[in-house]
Amino acid sequence: MTWLGAVPAWCWWLIALVLVAGGQEIRVGAGKSEAATARGETASARTELADYRLEVSERDRRAAAQARTEEQRRQSVADQEGESAQQKLELAQGRAAAAESAAGGLFDEIKRLRDGHRATCDTIATQQRQAGASAVVVLGGLLEESDRMAGSCAAALERSRIAGLACESIYNGLTK
Whole-angstrom Cα distance, residue 83 to residue 81? Predict the structure, then answer.
């Protein structure tokens, strides 16, 4: 028999049990070490995630504030140009009203001249009076109509010019 046979069987079981228990103790220790490392990494990742979220929210806040500032600047430019255009339109309407008033006076003068012409032409021969009266009437009518058309065209063109300039100013103000 060898020395292995001299050791009782229960000792072999005890040695095996001690070896298995020691191996398990080593595994548990390694698992605890890995768990501690994982907890540290998780805490580090949470901190990094919180920092990233804070950075993104701060960037979003700055971008929103910048967008609000730009929108307010553009609205201010548009409001100023709109007010300026409105003032120019009111001025043009005042000028048009003054021109229309002057044209009314001119029409009254033409009517007075026509009436005066008729009164003075009573002494001239009937044929001459008819030719002269018809020429004065036609010319007076043409003058009235052309003046009316010129006034309405001038008013429309002035409104269009003011609106175009206001639009151009607003565009230039917004693209700066």
Answer: 5
d(CA 25, CA 127): 142
pLDDT in tens, 81-103: 888 888 888 888 888 788 777 77
Separation CA 1–CA 108 (nearest Å)? 154
Provide the pLDDT for residue 133.
58
Total domains in the fold of the chain: 1
Is 6 part of any domain? Answer: no
Tell me what pLDDT residue 160 has. Answer: 86
Rounded distance between C-alpha atoms, residue 77 and residue 67, angstroms:
15
Residue 21 lies in a domain: no
Residue range of the domain that includes 76: 26-175
**What pLDDT shows up at residue 174?**
76
Confirm whether 106 is domain-assigned: yes
In the predicted structure, residue 154 carries a pLDDT above the cut 70: yes
**Residue 16 forms part of a structural domain:** no
Decide: helix, strand or coil at residue 8.
Answer: coil
